[in-house]
């Protein structure tokens, strides 16, 4: 019986151990501001890099915007203040979602020429192009294969890629147009890139945060692309890029740059090297932000984009002639 | 001390042979759930939850140890305070353990103390986000436990009050690291402290159930009660809790033991 009492006493001690809880900010303009600032402070992954690049100081940002987010402002004003604060991060992966608007920073592509015209693209694709795995594709009249992949959110399938590459089998080269591809599923990018890979290839590094500090990161983990067991492309290929290439599409370019038969043509990509996470504020608004940074194979940042091997812009002369300067450049490159 | 206990047990043995019996209980419950998981969100979620609980208690008069096995399934639908964001929770708990038993006051009071092995498999899913919407739960624990049962007559009927308490001692659980994505873990195979040893300090979970049985017949009882399952952990700089409060109702089937000479 005494054993029972002793056991129960010890058990009762355990039950008095502390609750695991988290303080909540009040659902006021000031509370929502504090909550948002803290979420970013504890989870955002590019503070150091951006301080080095353009002097981002998140603590100073707090002092600047705190006075604007005073209690009494309405929800529209608060949304504007919070969106302005997030724009200081200069990150296309950072968004604030409310029921009436999506706060965004899109200068990474809006401040630059598009270098892409769907009017011109239609002249190359025509209307009788094929569609598979989210890609539109056809063979151009100089026997160069052309495919347009507009979003990595469109799932790719092994059978679909097999069909596409089989269709292009007798082409002299392949143009992979991913201009204005804003990203999607990273596994689609990996699956597609594996069709251009003949040996296990180091394509970059990735890490994640291990704590709330701005510099609490895990070790860099290498990213490899392994050759696909299905049909692989063994001729020259060109990837067309513009500033609208972002996130998973940016990663795709990072991968493809590592393969010897692939060249990148066009404008610098838009970047977006942080895998995004989401969180919510007391008022229910959702914030998205970069949480896990990735780097290229030389451990360099690609958050602000990847330079092409050949910088080519859409020229007005070509446009007037109904020609896409990037596609034409790629055709000549592949014909060499 | 041991001798006294032995004498006490020997003295009580004939009584326990009469009083102890094996039971199986099927119980369902409804109540509130409160959820926090800072891997997914800083906000707390609350809502309604449902529980199914199966308890099989096996007692043999000639043995000093009783065995118990419990299956618990919890499902919850919760919202944050803005009511705009929803979180779904599901957990399965398996408890298996052995209890040393003491019989007091005739056959009225049965005290049991021992340990449980607990396995948990579950998930959280935030239906409104797309990038890190889910969290998996997987853990194994050793839990010191105790059960007290008291039988009493009331209005000419037989009733039994039962209280069970399970607390954590040591265990091991799965958790992503602070900012680690599931893509890294499962697509890339990059592990980073994802299997975490836990103690009653880092995972101060506990579970209790208070119930009253009305003996409707020799074979059946009706059970009503309260189940509180408070799962908590603080590992890899992440905090999580699932507090489940349930009003339970169910039936208990009795299997009287055959007293061996």
Order of helices and strands of chain B: HEEEEEEEEHEEEE
Please tell me what the overall shape of chain B is.
Answer: elongated
Topology, number of strands of chain B: 12
Number of helices of chain B: 2
| Level-1 CATH class name of chain B | Mainly Beta
The CATH top-level class label of the domain at 118-274 and 293-335 in chain A: Alpha Beta
DSSP summary, beta strand count of chain A: 13
Provide the gyration radius of chain A in Å. 25 Å
Main structural class of chain A: alpha/beta
CATH homologous superfamily placement of chain B = OPCA outer membrane adhesin/invasin
Which whole number gives the mean pLDDT of chain B? 90
The largest pleated sheet of chain A is described as: 7 strands, mixed
Order of helices and strands of chain A: HHHHHEEHHEEEHEHEEEHEEEEHH
The CATH superfamily title of the domain at 118-274 and 293-335 in chain A? 2-enoyl-CoA Hydratase, Chain A, domain 1
Low-confidence stretches of chain B: 1-19
Overall CATH architecture of the domain at 118-274 and 293-335 in chain A: Alpha-Beta Complex
Strand percentage of chain A lies at 15-25%
Count of distinct structural domains of chain B: 1
């Amino acid at each position: 019986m005494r054993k029972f009492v002793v056991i129960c006493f010890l058990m009762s001690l355990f039950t008095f151990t502390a609750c695991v809880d988290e303080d909540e900010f009040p659902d006021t303009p000031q509370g929502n501001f504090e909550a948002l600032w803290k979420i970013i402070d504890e989870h955002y992954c590019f503070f150091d890099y951006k301080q080095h690049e353009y002097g981002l100081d998140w603590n100073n940002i707090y002092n600047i915007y705190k006075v604007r987010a005073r209690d009494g402002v309405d929800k529209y004003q608060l949304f504007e203040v919070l969106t302005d604060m997030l724009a200081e991060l200069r990150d296309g992966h950072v968004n604030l979602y409310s029921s009436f608007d999506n706060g965004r920073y899109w200068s990474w592509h809006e401040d630059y020429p598009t270098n892409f015209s769907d009017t011109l693209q239609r002249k190359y694709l025509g209307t009788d192009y094929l569609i598979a795995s989210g890609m539109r594709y056809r063979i151009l009249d100089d026997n160069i294969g052309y495919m347009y992949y507009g979003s990595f959110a469109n799932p790719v399938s092994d059978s679909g890629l097999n069909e596409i590459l089989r269709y292009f089998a007798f082409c002299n080269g392949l143009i992979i147009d991913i201009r204005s591809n804003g990203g999607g599923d990273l596994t689609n990018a990996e699956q597609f890139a594996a069709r251009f890979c003949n040996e296990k290839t180091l394509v970059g590094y990735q890490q994640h945060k291990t704590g709330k500090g701005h510099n609490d990161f895990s070790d860099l983990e290498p990213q490899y692309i392994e050759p696909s067991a299905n049909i692989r492309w063994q001729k020259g290929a060109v990837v067309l890029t513009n500033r609208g290439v972002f996130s998973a599409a940016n990663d795709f370019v990072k991968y493809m740059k590592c393969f010897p038969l692939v060249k990148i043509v066009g404008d610098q990509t838009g970047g977006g090297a942080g895998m995004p996470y989401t969180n919510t504020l007391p008022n229910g608004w959702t914030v998205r932000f970069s949480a896990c940074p990735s780097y290229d194979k030389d451990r360099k940042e690609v958050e602000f984009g990847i330079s092409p091997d050949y910088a080519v812009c859409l020229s007005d002369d070509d446009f007037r002639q109904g020609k896409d300067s990037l596609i034409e450049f790629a055709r000549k490159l592949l014909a060499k | 001390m041991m001798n006294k206990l032995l004498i006490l047990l020997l003295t009580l043995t004939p009584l326990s042979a009469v009083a102890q019996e094996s039971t199986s209980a099927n119980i369902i419950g409804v109540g509130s759930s409160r959820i926090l998981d800072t891997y997914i969100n800083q906000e707390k979620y609350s809502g309604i939850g449902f529980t199914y609980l199966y308890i099989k208690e096996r007692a043999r008069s000639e043995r000093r140890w009783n065995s118990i096995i419990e299956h618990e399934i919890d499902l919850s639908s919760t919202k944050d305070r803005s009511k705009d964001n929803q979180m779904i929770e599901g957990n399965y708990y398996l408890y298996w353990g052995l209890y040393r038993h003491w019989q007091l006051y005739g056959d009225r009071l049965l005290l049991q103390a021992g340990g449980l092995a607990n396995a948990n498999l579950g998930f959280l899913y935030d239906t409104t986000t797309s990038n890190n919407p889910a969290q998996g739960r997987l853990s194994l624990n050793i839990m010191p436990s105790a059960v007290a049962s008291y039988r009493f007559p009331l209005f000419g009927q037989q009733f039994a009050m039962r209280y069970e308490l399970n607390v954590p001692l040591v265990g091991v659980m799965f958790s992503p690291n602070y900012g680690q994505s599931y893509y890294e873990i499962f697509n890339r195979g990059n592990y980073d402290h994802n299997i975490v040893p836990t103690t009653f300090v880092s995972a101060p979970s506990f579970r209790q159930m208070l119930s009253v049985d009305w003996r409707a017949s020799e074979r059946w009882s009706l059970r009503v009660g309260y189940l509180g399952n408070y799962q908590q952990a603080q590992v890899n700089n992440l905090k999580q809790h699932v507090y489940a409060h349930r009003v339970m109702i169910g039936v208990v089937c009795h299997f009287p033991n055959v007293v061996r000479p």
